[in-house]
Amino acid sequence: MSKIAVIGSNMVDLITYIDRMPAQGETLEAPGFALGCGGKGANQAVAAAKLGTDVLMLSKVGDDMFADNTVANFERFGIDTRYVQRVPGVSSGVAPIFVQADSHNSILIVKGANAHLSPADIEAAAADLRECKLIVLQLEIDLETVYDAIEFAHRHGIPVLLNPAPALSGLNAEHLAHLDFLIPNESELALISGQVVDSPESANAAARSLVAGGIRHVIVTLGEQGALYVGEEGEFRVPGVRVEARDTTGAGDAFIGCFIHHWNQDADIRHAMEQAVAYSACSVMGLGTQTSYPDRETFKRFQQQR
Ligand code: RIB
Predict the structure, then answer these.
(1) CATH number, domain with residue 136
(2) I need a surface site. Which of 5, 89, 148, 263 has the fewest CB within 10 A?
(3) By alpha-carbon position, which residue is closest to atom 9 of ligand 1?
(4) pLDDT tens per residue across span 187-216
(5) Does a structural domain hold residue 259?
């Protein structure tokens, strides 16, 4: 199995479990707190690595107490960190996260060092990137770097996947047209397509418009409703997996990490989506982001039990 490259963010997740959001000027006691490794790029890389994929990570950490721990965390999962570099005089990325009792979350991100990952870093890693079977991107780094990575992949015939999160409007259609995979959730899909997405039918229609624009495969994650596919292989839906959710933070990243792991094995998109839906359902049963991602054995047990 060949290597997958993730070009993206890492964050320190500052997760506060709350009963409700405080009002302006109010101080409120919260029942719990956890510090964890997060960031959409890092989460996707760690999920894939936990399942056994060989991952090359391109990312930037800051010049602070968090940096060494982030690099050590990547290394703990066997991720290649040769291109995870420190930026002097800059903070690491951090994400204050608020998780409500109903398992839903609100997230702030401070990009910090992540904003310094540049096209020059892609050039510096070019020889290693050319050996990868897939390049995976999100939107927590500079947009020009994302576009540069898409064009690099396109030039070298390397499949490229964009998870357009966090949601951003006005993405450049010419660059998007060079994507092999786009994996948005419903609100990201609405922003990118410029269409209202409020039903399975409207999600299909919006996804179709992106495929008409040149993207080969659009996969829309629908939370507990599963996921839908529109693209070269037709249109189909993978149903959700019912579980008792405790913390949904990073569930979308769990989906992508598991999807790329399975796609890398046999390029079977439907099977990879089925596995990814189950993996992200399993992840919401645990607390935290990366801490809630099952390894291969735990995921196997989860699937046998359901
Ligand atoms: O997708 C979840 C992630 O979003 C968190 O880990 C947080 O760091 C933000 O990047």
Answers:
(1) 3.40.1190.20
(2) 89
(3) 39
(4) 999 999 999 999 989 999 999 999 999 999
(5) yes
Q: What is the pLDDT of residues 213-246, one digit of tens each?
A: 999 999 999 999 999 999 999 999 999 999 999 9
The model's pLDDT over 259-270, given as tens digits with 9 standing for 90+, comes to 999 999 999 999
In a domain, 14, yes or no: no
Distance CA 146, CA 266 (A): 26
What is the CB neighbour count within 10 angstroms for residue 106? 12
The count of other CB atoms within 10 Å of the CB of residue 176 is 18
Residue 55 lies in a domain: yes
Q: Residue 188 corresponds to which tokens in the numbers above?
A: 């990201």
Catalytic-residue membership of 253:
yes
Cis (ω within 30 of 0) for the bond into 96? no
Domain of 164, in residue numbers: 4-9+39-89+113-305
How much distance in Å is there from the Cα of 233 to the middle of ligand 1? 31
Residue 199 belongs to some domain of the structure: yes
pTM above 0.85, yes or no: yes
